[in-house]
Amino acid sequence: MGQINMELMRSDAPIGVFDSGVGGLTVVREIMRQIPNEKIIYFGDTARVPYGSKSQETVTRFSEQIVRFLRTFQVKTIVVACNTASAYALETLEKNIDIPIIGVVKPGAKAAAEVTRNKKIGVIATEATIGSKIYSQYIHQLSSDVEIYGKACPLFVPLVEEGLLQDPVTDEIARRYLAELIDIDIDTLILGCTHYPLIRSTLQRIMGENVTLVNPAYETALELKRLLGSMKMLNEETPGLGSDRYRFYVSDKADKFVHFANSIIKYGILSAKTVQIEKY
Questions:
Q1: Predicted confidence (pLDDT) per residue in 24-49, tens digit
Q2: Whole-Å CA distances, 116 to 68, 194, 220
Q3: 95: Cβ–Cβ under 8 A, 6 or more apart, which residues?
Q4: Which of 216, 236, 258 is the last residue of a domain?
Q5: In which domain, by residue range, is 186 found?
Q6: How far is CA 247 from the centre of its chain?
Q7: How many domains, in total, are found in the chain?
Q8: CA Rg, the chain, in Å?
Q9: What is the CATH number of the domain that holds 60?
């Protein structure tokens, strides 16, 4: 990470969160639950979703644009609420930023390494995240004798983005994707894309109750709380009404985003603004 400039950071400043689309809202939801006094600026790159089929160079360029946008709000920290961007771009972003920035992969990997009993962990994610082998790298740093089985599930993101959370189509595709992981007898499954917790009940039903599902969104919110606490940067004051506590921005289809966001967060998100992100 670049040199952290504490003078730039105020404890009542917002947290910046970004994702390729709506999936990062699962991270926002957990941040709201775990550290409710924090203000949040969210950006969903809905014009360019999905990231999982794009090159590292492209995902890094997109991520740098979004970070520049979020910095205009004087955010005190940034959460990369996208596994693909965490895998492909986080290292580059860390080198060029003077505030803390965290991804969703390390917290998820740590949790999985701690809960597995038979040392067989499955990872479902986008093609990019699976291809990067980033979960394997982090888990093996923590526990060298764990076997990790990655499975790309590219259709889950568009199914979630279309709102097909409880649908026979999603069920059927999930069964096909997960069949080989069931045969391998994994006991832990990492939901390696922030969209996937939205179909958690389907995944749990198919995998069976003996498989522990690890939700990196939840683990990331806890990690963020620890990080801000260690830096004395938690917001002690509850933001007042009308203080723009939660603000949402997208690169396309704001109305569709708002409808979906309200179904996930249940907070009464009234609006999202569209941003020409290529300008940043």
A1: 999 999 999 999 999 999 999 999 99
A2: 38, 21, 19
A3: 1, 2
A4: 216
A5: 106-216
A6: 17
A7: 2
A8: 18
A9: 3.40.50.1860
Tokens of 4: 């952290």
- Per residue in 167-198, is it b (16+ CB within 10 Å) or e — as a string? eeebeebbeebbeebeeeebbbbbbbbbbbbb
CA 213, distance to chain mean position in Å, is 15
pTM over cut 0.90: yes
Task: Provide the token pair at 172.
Answer: 């059927």
d(CA 195, CA 119): 25
Residues 6+ apart with CB under 8 A from 106: 138, 223
C-alpha distances in Å from residue 108, one per residue of 102, 132, 148: 12, 15, 13
C-alpha distances (whole Å) from 156 to each of 106, 159, 170, 194 are: 22, 5, 8, 11
Residue 257: closest CA among 71, 58, 43: 43
Tokens at 84, concatenated:
């693909």
Residue 5, token pair as written in the block: 């400039």
Report how far residue 174's alpha carbon sits from residue 155's, in angstroms, rounded to the nearest whole number.
9
Give the β-pairing of 77-80 and 188-192: unpaired
**What angle separates helix 105-115 from helix 216-230, to the nearest 10 degrees?**
110
Q: Which of the listed residues 190, 216, 242 is the one where a domain comes to its end?
A: 216
CA distances from 96 to 20, 43, 70, 91 (A): 21, 20, 14, 9
Q: Is it the case that residue 242 has pLDDT exceeding 70?
A: no
Kind and range of the H or E element at 152?
strand 147-152
Return the active site residues.
82, 193
pLDDT of residue 240: 72
Residue 3: pLDDT band (50, 70, 90) is low
Instruction: State residue 239's pLDDT score.
Output: 80
